[in-house]
User: Fold this.
Amino acid sequence: MKNESDPITDDEWLLRRVHTMWFKNERVPIISLRAFEPRIDGRDPDINGISLYREECLNSAEEILSIVAEDKRPDQGIVRLPVRAFLELQLGVQSKPDARIKGHVLIPGLNANDYAAAKGIFTSVLLSLATMASQDQNIVLWPRSLR
Assistant:
């Protein structure tokens, strides 16, 4: 297990919590592009980028669900993507420690301000991430409500 203060390397994997509404079994990709959109409104907009977690800093992927209210956990899944993918898409990966869960990172290239200003230019990037996340080996945890 890595310490979250260790440098992020391009051979690592990142985990993203995905709500059940973004799992679309009847479509390809299975994971909706919307799972990677920055929140631009409401509580906690993704001003500095979307959140993910370094897989190697966690004991298990389920740790990510510990910050979700217990009654909402059945509606949450977890997907994984390689750091390399974010770097190749020129989105960046930045460590942003969070006292609740180890290994928290931000993807500064997917931030609320840039996304709100020009959503259309992000379509191919979001499609690329959704397609990778939809591969069987990258769906780490299906939402319990879909099992």
In short: The helical segments are 83-88, 112-117, 123-133.
